Model the fold of this input.
Amino acid sequence: MSDKKKDNVRMTRGMTALYLILTLGVGVAVLANIINIQWVHGDEWRARGERREAGLRTDPARRGIIYSSDGKILATTVTECDLYLDLYNKAELDEHGHAKYDRHGRPIETGPIVDSNFSNYLDSVCGLLADAIPQHTVSYYRERIAVERTKENPRRCFLVQRGVPYSVWLQICRMPGWSRGVVRQVDGQSVVHQVRAHIYGNLAENTIGFRNRLDANSYTGLEGYYDSILRGQDGLFNCRRLTKGIWLPDEPRQSREVAQRTDQDRIDTIVLQPRVDGQSIVATIDTRYQDIAETSLRDALRRYGGTAGCAILMEMQTGYVLACANLAVDTAAHDYLEVRDRNVAVSDVYEPGSTFKTVILSAMLEDPDVQIDTSMRLPVRYKNFGGKNGEIKDDHGNWDSLSLKGVIEQSSNVGMSDLGWRFYNNRRDTLRHLVEQLFPYAKLSPDVKAPEYKTRINNLHASNRDFLNFCYGYSTTVSALRLVTFYNALGAGGRMVKPLFCRAIVDRDGREHAIKPVVVNEHICSRRTATLMREMLEGVVENGTGNNIKNTTYGIAGKTGTAVHSYSNLKRYNASFAGFFPSEEPRYTCLVVVQDIPAYGRQAALVFKNISDCVVAMDKRLSDGAVRSAWPTLEADSAAAMSRPTLLRGKSDEIEDLYRRLKLPYLATDSAKGWVYCRPATDSTPAIYDVYRPADGHVPNVNGMTAKDAIEMLHSMGYRVTISGYGKVRSQSPQAGTQSRKGTIVNLTLR
Done:
């Protein structure tokens, strides 16, 4: 064998040996790693793989519903989607770079939505979006989508609109050829999510509550206060990864405990739990009253150009807040709306002005060391209480002095200052203490989550001016909710209840558990003081500064208030009106505040009256009472009862039905059947109905009848009828009792 062949053999053997050695080394290394992974560190790697492919997942609970007291849904959880489109679309090219065509001569395209489907259904998609999101038009969406589509490199994940209703999103997904173009997940997160929806839009939104911007898991309003009840309990269960982003339950969702290592020294036990949806609540808000309050307040703000305002309607005995309108300027919408996180009624504090005079006088009347004569005369118009800062004057009125009742009715600053100076100049802390005992300066902590800022009384010893200002409603700050709570207590005879915004909690079986009224103070004042103040507040409406709302059948007791808001050359005011109604037996308390307007408190009184009129009209208890008071019954044994309104003639069954509806007694003789007439009342007997039988051959008397009854009677007796005018019969020709034949024309004049 030649040397060359020997060298080749040796080289081949060497390479073979090297290959065997390397193969053996790699095999040993692989085997060592298999042993290491499988047995030495097997538990660790198996646990790591398990954590990657299996894990604990959360099943979010459905949040409870917020109902209104009249049975409407105020807030609930709905499904919304963010609409993303994959707008990529390119013509398919052959090996020469030329477009490919199908057998119909159309270019073959690659992309989720081909041009034909895109063009055919783009308007339909844009129409669905415009109907669901009224802020934008069809042309807005068409241009937005088409411009992106025509770009050289259109986005594969283009955001068209957030907050699209799930039903609309589903319709777009089902458009022919669009299904693959609708993106289902963005960054591993589904575009479908649950959101809180206010069914009535902006109505009472601050009372219902918003999701906090900084903390997505917390809320304001009722949503925040009752969050633990509404939230429910999220489910926790084991899941296993099916594909990317898709997880399926690994076992039935039963409650059990599993151990999970959180660090080297501690093992936590996690309880697997089923999902429990949140309970619902029934708010005290009545959508009818809330709509009335917001509409009336918004009209006043538009008319006078205020910056904000509130209107609170409270049920007197329970403290249930039936309406709470909180409106402020929304610069984006150019209107007055419930602005996010601006609960004017609870959070805004202001100097109340003359509505606080009621508090001051009530406190003085409760002072055992001072006997205030209600008939005493007090100076008005102008008085100097010492020095330049002691000058007080009224802007209206032609009186030099008024009684105490007149001072409240005419809202005299001079009169209230004189009263305070006369009895409390040397005992200023006593007056302050009396007011603090009477008025709820401490936090009310209502069941709505909103900032409740501290209210205060200025240092009354700082100057005479501060003390005098305090006597007529300045040098102190209050919130609207605290002030309406005081007036509510005054109307209830001194019993102060906490304002409540939730009436009941609805459990998962549909049973309502009522939230009982909370009494803050059983007697803030004596019955005598409450009665005196109610009489004075009635006088404010009948004879004083609130006489622009006095023409009511039910009666209002309240107080106007005007506080200077700006001390510049062009003064601005906070106008308010607080009171209760009906004045005789109060059932409701209302407060209206309109901030920063160039007008006085009388304007707020008009908003109050709009609200009270509608409440009385819708409350059957009050409307029935109004009917009874306007139409006295015979049991009253009065002259008014003797001359109660009557129908002169008509059918007995119809007249009897009318009296029954009016809750009046129907007095008639035993024979009063069919056609009847009203026999006039005498000094000893009331009016009573008796049978009416017209003589044959004589024209019957149809005066006072309705047109229907008059025609029916005359036709039944063979007469023909002509009518002019409308209303009831006021005259007839021929006259009643005239002899005539059948077929005669009787002319009736109605009025």
